[in-house]
Write a structure and sequence with these properties.
single chain; alpha+beta; Beta-Lactamase; six-stranded antiparallel sheet; five-stranded antiparallel sheet; about 55% helix
Amino acid sequence: MDATVGGRILLKLKSIVLFCWSSSKTYSLFFVTIVVSSVALSLLITALHHQREREYLNQITQQQHIQLKSILFTLENTADIVFENVINQPDIIDLMARASRASESERGALRTRLFERLAPAYQLMEARGGRLLHFHLPGGISFLRFHRTDVYGDDLTEVRPSINQVNESGDVVRGFEEGRVFQGFRNVYPLRQGDELVGTVDISYSFLALRDLAVRLFPAIYTLMYHKESVARVAGEEDQGRYRQCRVSPFYLKEQEAVAHIKAELPGLNIVSLETLQQLNSDLREQVAERMEARAEFSVSRLIPGDHKILVVTFLPIRNIQGDAVAYFVSYRPDRNVADYNRRYHQMRRVIVALTLIFFFSGLLYYRQTLHKEKYQALATSDRLTRLANRLHFDLVLDQILRQVRRGEQSLSLLMLDIDNFKQVNDVYGHDGGDRVLVSVAGVLRGTVREQDLAARWGGEEFVVLLPGASGEEAGRVAEKIRQAIADHETVSGSQMIQVTCSFGVAEYGKGMTAEELLKRADQGLYLAKERGKNCVVRS
C-alpha cells in the first residue's frame, strides 16, 4: 500500500473517531474500536483492489503493445513482398534510373509509363489495405504519387526524414511518419541499379489498414489520434480540413475518413453505441490529460452505465521515425476480468457494511458533507445570476492555462465583451429586465463557445471568454460568431422583447505576456470597439 493510500486511510479514520466522540458521550470506546476496525478493513480492501486493478491494467497495456507490434510486423512483411515481387524489377529500376538523369519534360513520359506499368498492382494493393505507393528521385524529389498523380516534383527533404535516411544510408527505413498529403506507417526502400542509387519508393499503410487487420485479429474499437502540432507542421491548409477535434483531448485530431469508417462499422462490433462512445471520450478527458501530456502508454477502465459493462481503454503512443511521440493508437474493448474484480470487491464491501450499522451512518454523513462541500465549491466558483464562472475562478484557470501555454508553446486568445447601452436597458425595462438580458447573453455564450473554452462574468455587464489553442485570427472569428448570435437573440421580459448588442476586444497571447497584460490588451480592443460605434469586434 503506498503512502498516499495510507494517508487517506488515516484521515478517514480520524474523521470517524472525532464524529463518534463528539456526537454523544454514551459512545463507548469498544464501539469506536469496532467502527475503526470496520472502516480500516474496508479501506484496506479498497486499496488492495485498486492496486490489483492497476497491475492488471499495466498487463493489458503491455499485451496491447505486443499486439500492435505484431500487426505492424504483418504489414511490414506484406510491404516487403510487394517490393520484392512487384517493385524491385529490372524494367522499373531502369525507368527510375532514366528518370533520375532525364530533363523535366522527359520525365513526364517516364512517369506515365511507370504509372501504367504498376496501376494494376496498385489497385490490388489498395484492395488489400495499402494506401500509398510513392516513388522519389535521388535527393528526395517526388516523382510519382499513385494516390495523387497530379502532385509531383516537390522537394520532400524538409518533411520526410525517412527518405533522407534512405538516401544517406542506402538501407530500408520503416516507421510512422507524417506527410503533406498522407500520414501513415511507412516502408521506404532504396532503388538501385548496380551500385547506383536511382531513387526510393514508399509503400505505406493508413490507420484504416492497420485497424481492419487489428479488428480481424483482436476484435475491439480502434482509433488513431494525431497531435495538432504534428498535423500543423506538415499538412497544408487544404489538407487540414481532413481532420476533426478529438473529444478525449483538445490537443489531438482524428481523420474525418477514419471517423466515418468507424461510425459505419461500430454497430457490427456490438461493443457500445456511438453516443456512448462519444460520452465516454468526453468523460475521460480529465482522467487521461496528464498522462497524454507526458506521452505515456497506459490503460484505464470505465463502467458503461446502463450496459453493466466494463470497457478497458488503452492509449499507446505512436512515435515517428525521428522518435517523437506524435499520435496515439487507442483501443476500446470490454473486459470481464475487471468486471469480476469489481464484483468480488463489492461483495466483500457489502459483508463489511453488514457487520456494523454505524459504518453506514458514518458513510451517509460523509456523503452529505461531500454534497454540501460541492455545493459550496460551486457557489464559490460560479456567478450566482448567470451561472458562468466568476472572476475569481476565471483568474485561477487563466493562471493555470498560461503555465501550460508557456511550457508547451500553444496558442491562447482571450475575448472581452460588454453589452452596449446596458444602462438604457435598466432604465427602460428595469433591473429585472437587465438581469434577464445578462442571463440571456450568458446562455448565448454557453451555446457558442467550444468545449475547451471558458466563459465567465467579469463584472456588471462585462464578460470574458478564454480560448485555449486558438490564434488571434481564430478568436476573431469566434468573437464575430458570438456577436452575431447575441445581436440575433431576443430576451423575453414579461410581455416585452429586448434585443441588445455587444462590443468585443480580442487579444492573443504573446511570448512572456502576463495575465494582466493579456487582459489589458483585450480591454484596449474593447475600448476601441466602443469608440468605433459599438456592436463590432476589434483585435488588439
